[in-house]
From TrEMBL, chain A:
Residues 1-38 are annotated as: Disordered. This is Serine/threonine-protein kinase 19 isoform X1. Residues 1-12 have a biased composition (Low complexity). Pfam families: Stk19. Keywords: Kinase, Transferase.
TrEMBL record, chain B:
WD repeats lie at residues 39-81, 99-141, 186-228, 308-349, 395-427. GO terms for biological process: proteasome-mediated ubiquitin-dependent protein catabolic process; protein polyubiquitination; transcription-coupled nucleotide-excision repair. Residues 237-290 are annotated as: Disordered. Residues 261-271 have a biased composition (Polar residues). This is WD repeat-containing protein ATCSA-1-like isoform X1. GO terms for cellular component: Cul4A-RING E3 ubiquitin ligase complex; nucleotide-excision repair complex. Pfam families: WD40 (PF00400). Residues 251-260 have a biased composition (Low complexity). Keywords: DNA damage, DNA repair, Repeat, WD repeat. The gene is LOC115746350.
Length: 274, 447
């Protein structure tokens, strides 16, 4: 299914370009993955393939060092059957290949990160905190060993957290605040004794995400017919978001705010009314 | 069509499957009815619709202007358009002039499940009234502590006549028609209760969905709920048959350190022990003693400690499938989830919705043999396939948000009511031949 769709949606020049790229891809996979246009790589057949491709296509940002993550809505736009996406994500989560985090940018936003990327991210956060002379950093080790391995859900209650951390050593209250400052745990607003798991240093990304969404939607809604060709839309740059246009397009198509229509000149992106 | 009947006659097709085939082909051709129209007398948005369970003939509607009306959907009062369009006017209306009327909006109107002699209305004026249909008088009044969001009566009940009421108060109240008093209250929710539904398989089991996002199952003979649905407990599709499952559960229970019921029991036991005698783990004990509640809890009330949520927002609609095995829930996080009732797990079927109405409870409907579920999504009603989550049909017709929909399995018709005060009928398509009068020397523009 994935081989059919991109080739049918893009003109013959696109398939030829893609075939050429695939020959060169043997040498450098990441580079070609990043340079493929969205039109060619819009749909995939399998969730894991989609995840890997999107992770490779994650934009490289200089100021903030963050490991690639994928949004759930991006997966919905890439694989046709959403139920299959949900179920495959669930089985991948249970086999500890990846972790799912709930984000606070709007309803039902989830970020998916591969487990090794997440551990890498925690390492960087710990290193940054060491530079600022924060003590009690062994709690991150306990967190990595005991908590992440056993609790696979996006949230955890205060009691569970303490009991699991105490398997590593004696837990003090200020160590929990160290964890919160490091960004791996966030207190829930509704329920003070529950925490969400979080990605450290992702704050600027999330701000860029919500601002980029608004900017893209306003860009399209200002046009007369509220639509634009995907090829020309992709070339634009967003002012307010460090994430690239392809990231936002996948996210908004998957969450239903935008829809794509096949036309003789290529795919057209339009704001959906309901 | 005739071939099908012939096959049934000769016995090549079983009568049940023949009937199901006809019904599903009729459902597949549902569209805005071109031969049936319900004239709605309401001056406010229609909040609740129900076709009676005994005959499938009378439709009861409740609206925001405190009016309730009953229509006969099988016999029209008037025929218009040359005998082609049937207009169904209400048989009676309870409106603002009525002496026993509600003061504010009616949020739910349901028939007494045994016969159509009684119906029950619940309203935002904190009252639930039981009406006698023939004399159109309110015979009973129950005062609730808050706005009534939803009421429900069990269609299977043989030993009780309880009305379950969900209000903005955290407790679910059961009102008894036989005695005119409250039977008991069910506590466990942490915010108002938006929807209540009785189970299709047991007359004592009640399902409630609250504004805190939790879905709880109650057995009314016991205290406390016996199950809370957690959206993180999921199973991939239908449960496997029994023999495979017993081999699987041995592997999965060791892995799942976060089973809902197991966890609540484990934490409850550990909490109780930390109260009673000395500490086991010093560090965790100190922190848990600060956060936990001091008094002992009745074992039946342990479920109130369980804070699992089924949705990230409020639960706005609940519907149990006809076979009683699956529960369909709609939440204000714009997600629709399908739950397996027996195992309490989310089956991870993804129903594609962008937005759902969030401030009012919405009424969902299931077609017979649970093939389709009808969900009001903003201004349209979408029909989703139960197991794949695909949108099969979209019914566009209302001018504003749709609040309720009711599917009548007898005629395969769908009735929907919305904020535009209309009740629309969606029926299987019937084509009409051209009118005789226009084929002579005239066309449709002639006088």
């Amino acid at each position: 299914m994935s081989t059919q769709d991109p080739s049918s949606s893009s003109p013959s020049k696109g398939t030829k370009r893609r075939r050429d790229e695939e020959e060169a891809a043997a040498a450098d996979d990441a580079e070609t993955a990043a340079s493929e246009s969205l039109e060619q790589s819009l749909t995939f057949s399998d969730t894991l393939v989609a995840l890997r491709m999107m992770r490779a296509q994650f934009p490289h940002i200089d100021k903030v060092s963050i490991r690639p993550f994928v949004l759930r809505s991006q997966l919905y736009s890439s694989v046709v059957d959403r139920t299959q996406v949900d179920r495959e994500l669930e089985s991948l989560r249970r086999t500890k290949v990846l972790r799912i985090f709930k984000l606070n940018t709007g309803q039902d936003d989830h970020a998916i990160m591969f487990l090794d990327d997440y551990l890498n991210q925690i390492e960087r956060a710990v290193k940054r905190m060491e530079e600022k002379n924060v003590h009690d950093l062994e709690v991150f080790e306990w967190f990595k060993i005991h908590v992440i391995d056993t609790r696979l859900e996006p949230n955890i209650s205060h009691q569970d957290l303490c009991s699991l951390l105490s398997l590593g050593g004696k837990v003090k209250d200020n160590q929990i605040s160290v964890l919160i400052n490091g960004g791996v745990i966030i207190r829930q607003l509704i329920d003070p004794s529950m925490y969400w798991f979080a990605i450290p240093n992702v704050g600027s990304m999330l701000k860029g995400l919500s601002q980029g969404r608004k900017e893209l939607l306003s860009l399209l809604s200002r046009r007369r017919y509220k639509e634009m060709l995907l090829a020309s839309l992709e070339k634009k740059r967003l002012r307010l978001s460090p994430l690239d246009m392809r990231f936002h397009l996948r996210d908004l198509i998957g969450s239903g705010h935008l829809k794509t229509i096949k036309t003789p000149t290529g795919l057209v992106v339009r704001i959906s009314k309901e | 069509m005739w071939k099908e009947i012939e096959k049934r006659e000769s016995g090549r097709v079983r009568p049940r499957s023949f009937a199901n085939r006809v019904k599903s082909s009729r459902v597949a051709s549902l569209q805005l009815s071109n031969h049936k129209d319900i004239v709605s007398p309401h001056k406010g948005s229609v909040n609740s619709l129900q076709v009676d369970l005994t005959e499938g003939r009378y439709l009861l509607s409740g609206a925001s202007d405190a009016s309730a009306a009953v229509y006969d959907v099988q016999q029209p009062q008037k025929l218009e358009g040359g005998g082609l369009i049937a207009k169904h006017k209400p048989i009676f209306v309870i409106d603002k002039q009525h002496e026993h009327r509600h003061k504010y909006a009616i949020s739910s109107a349901i028939w007494y499940p045994i016969d159509t002699g009684l119906f029950v209305t619940g309203s935002y004026d904190h009252y639930i009234k039981v009406w006698d249909t023939n004399s159109t008088q309110a015979v009973m009044n129950f005062k609730m502590p808050g706005k009534v969001y939803s009421t429900s009566m069990s269609s299977l009940a043989t030993s009780h006549m309880l009305i379950a009421a969900g209000t903005e108060d955290v407790q679910v109240r059961l009102c008894d028609i036989a005695s005119g008093a409250f039977a008991h209250t069910l506590s466990g929710h942490r915010d108002g209760v938006m929807t209540v539904q009785w189970s299709n398989s047991s007359e004592y089991v009640l399902v409630t969905g609250g504004c805190d996002g939790a879905i709880r199952f109650w057995d009314i003979r016991r205290a406390g709920c016996f199950r809370v649905l957690d959206q993180s407990h999921s199973q991939l599709g239908r449960r496997p048959p029994l023999l495979e499952r017993s081999a699987m559960t041995k592997g999965s229970t060791s892995r799942s350190s976060s089973g809902g019921q197991n966890m609540s029991k484990a934490t409850a036991v550990s909490r109780k022990s930390s109260h009673g005698n000395g500490a086991k783990h010093s560090g965790s004990n100190r922190i848990s003693a600060k956060g936990s509640i001091k008094h002992r809890l009745h074992p039946g009330m342990l479920s109130s400690q369980d804070r699992a949520t089924a949705h990230y927002g409020a639960v706005t609609g609940l519907k149990i499938s006809e076979d009683g095995m699956y529960l369909f829930s709609a939440g204000s996080d714009s997600r629709l989830r399908l739950w397996d009732i027996e195992s309490g797990c989310n089956t991870l079927v993804n129903f594609e919705t962008v937005r759902l109405q969030t401030n009012k409870p919405i009424q969902l409907s299931v077609s017979e043999d649970s093939a389709l579920v009808f969900v009001p999504c903003m201004t349209v009603v979408k029909a989703f396939d139960f197991w794949s989550g695909k949108t099969y049909f979209t019914f566009r017709g209302h001018y504003e948000y749709v609040n309720c929909c009711c599917y009548s399995a007898l005629d395969q018709e769908l009735y929907t009511g919305g904020n535009d005060r209309q009740i629309l009928v969606w029926s299987p398509f019937i084509s009409y031949e051209a009118d005789e009068g226009t084929t002579r020397n005239e066309d449709s523009w002639s006088d």
